[in-house]
Design goal:
By secondary structure, the chain is of the alpha/beta class. It contains eleven helices and eleven strands. Strand 7, helix 7 and strand 8 form a beta-alpha-beta unit.
Length: about 270
């Protein structure tokens, strides 16, 4: 009986170790078509696939270094934070900036890269607004315009704080690709996205209908360090992920992952 009890304790301990090393990973996507092609496969040659691939490679490298078996799920950006917060996911990737409000909902890893924001629009629309303003359009002088941003993003939060003062009609979109489509079909005058997310989409846009408008902005909550989201209560996992990030950046693995998919640096 004692042997059976001891064996049972060993089995339970082993099961606990296995369970602890199995992580569910959420990676935010920008194009609804990417989700339609499967929740755990990166569709090749799709707009925005470079950013997804960087996050996917980074997630798998972190999982390898912390000796975890990870299941990767591709979800709309707006579902990453809620998914980590309510326990559906253990790691959340999506070009996420750290804010005091978000820190009440999830924990954040050490920084993985830097981000900024930029307006997008068609050249025709930008020229028309510049004529009315008497100067090139920028985030600082934008007014009386329809502006789209990503649901759950800091860009959307920023626009909502200035909407009444500037006469802006702000539209929330579930994916960055929907922001781009709103510009194409003239249901929005401008979009406000993170530079990296927008670049990943425009890089594969052969129509060249949409372009960056004005300069990139990193203040007023529109830029900063990008982090991985983790559950608030799991300090052990956060410390392990932070150690993996330090190692990945220290031995050049991060730079190799970034250059594999982007011609520009992520620092």
């Amino acid at each position: 009986m004692k042997c059976m009890r001891a064996l049972w304790l060993v089995v339970c301990l082993f099961a606990g170790i296995v369970q602890a090393s199995e992580l569910r990973v959420a990676i935010g996507v920008q194009d609804p078509a990417q989700l339609a092609m499967g929740g755990n496969i990166i569709p090749p040659n799709m707009p925005g696939s470079e950013l997804i691939a960087v996050n996917d490679d980074l997630a798998r490298e972190i999982c390898r270094r912390i000796h975890a078996r990870c299941t990767v799920n591709f979800v709309p950006f707006s579902e990453v934070l809620p998914g980590v917060e309510d326990g559906r996911f253990d790691l959340g990737f999506g070009n996420l900036l750290r804010t005091p409000e978000r820190e009440k909902r999830v924990a954040f890893s050490a920084p993985i890269w830097h981000s900024s924001s930029r307006l997008l629009g068609t050249p025709t629309t930008a020229e028309a607004f510049a004529a009315k303003l008497g100067q090139p359009v920028s985030i600082d002088n934008l007014r009386d315009a329809r502006v789209a941003a990503l649901e759950g993003s800091l860009q959307l939060a920023f626009l909502n704080t200035i909407a009444n003062q500037r006469g802006l009609a702000v539209a929330s979109k579930k994916t960055a690709q929907e922001v781009i489509e709103a510009l194409r079909n003239n249901t929005a005058d401008f979009g406000l996205l993170s530079v990296l997310s927008a670049y990943a989409l425009l890089n594969r846009d052969t129509t060249r209908q949409i372009e960056f408008i004005g300069s990139a902005v990193a203040d007023r909550g529109l830029g900063g360090t990008v982090h991985i989201a983790l559950p608030l209560q799991n300090d052990t996992l956060r410390r392990s992920v932070d150690q993996a990030i330090v190692a990945i950046r220290g031995d050049g693995s991060f730079q190799r992952i970034a250059r594999r998919h982007f011609p520009l640096g992520l620092d």
